[in-house]
Design brief:
five-stranded antiparallel sheet, alpha/beta, about 450 residues, 16 strands, Rossmann fold, seven-stranded mixed sheet
Amino acid sequence: MTNYTRHPSSFKDPSGFVFEAEGKIYRQVNQYYAAQYRQLMDSGLYNQLVSRQQLIAHEEVAENFTDTADWYTTLLPEPVPFISYPYEWCFEQLQDAASLTLAVLKTALQQGMILKDATPYNIQFHKGRPVFIDTLSFDSYDPKQPWIAYRQFCQCFLFPLYLEHYLKTDIQRILSTYIDGIPVDIIAKLLPLKSRLSLGVWLHVYLQHTASTSASGKANKQNGGFSKKKLLDVISHLTNIIDNFPANKTYKTTWSNYYEDTILSREYLHEKERIIQGFCQQTSARSVLDLGANDGYFSKIFASHQMQVIATDSDNRCISKLYQEVKQEKIQNILPLILDVANPSPAIGFNNQERGSFHQRIQTDLVAALALVHHLVIGKNISLPVLAAYFNGIAPELMIEFVPKEDEKVQQMLASRPDTFPDYDQTHFEHYFSKYFDIADKQIVVGTSRTLYRMKRK
């Protein structure tokens, strides 16, 4: 038997499971799911979805790596190098994942199949677009049964979208608390009164809430039929709701207009870009984590050097703007994600292993922290020694910018609080970081007191 490690999130479905062996990610199909798997493949549904880039492609491997008696076949899916979760997506990413789920469901129905679950964890963003990755989510369609994943779709997709739409605020942290979706009784209490003017809210929130709390609702759920036409009508209605959320968000956030409103000159950005371009020519890194990427100004520079870029920012609107640009320009090597460096996504779920932490999942050759350190030290009270140790843990190579106290931005930050940072200066910065890194290059951004560094872990 080959040594293998079963993925800690893959334990709920008797149809099969995901495991790692010999440095590759595989999916085992169990005998329990053999008939449905053959229907998926033989009906043409698999080829149809893969040709549309809606389902991840796989190869069949006739080897029982796990040596288990219920083995039917093994799948080797196309690798997805970076795994992200819905609480790291902006509104538009969750919206697109919801649209994809409904599109896959509609196509499955045409081939006599249905989705038995509808969770955003079945979706990953790969090569600039969402793709369905759970090959074992398809089941044979039974016209006598309702769509069992309807409630899950609402809780995981529709309810979070409604919440952000009506409250005009970020709701990503809520999704990491309600890992299986926001319950209908919670959403019914959180939505404002004006939401009751929406037919969609009445049908999918308040009516569902009433049904879930009444004995008659439970009886109807158990005994009522559900024709294909009725199901297609529900899919069409949900699709219209998802697709018709306003494209442009009118509310501003802290950093959504950073480059437009910054006191720093365009000359600063151009000079900084020149230095970063030079750093990129010196590195052999093929992947980069851009922390505090804002709207992706420098992420796009890294991408132009054929690096796989994870562009992160704590500001939802910044990531939204970048994601829409990635979509419009069909950029395949930038993945925008929401991340608060001071409070990154932790390991959550069953046994705190079901969903890995951000840094467990996202590991790159290079980390970029441009105009970020002063926000972490002065804004978040994270000392330079602690920061240096943090970057040592995640960055084989580091591009980092030091912004001293005399900088206008830092002076603005210190104007509203006491200066309790006696070691926040360039000498101490280099001292602390030199414990873990060798400084390969160091350049002052002309016209400013800022310095850019390229460092390599010792």
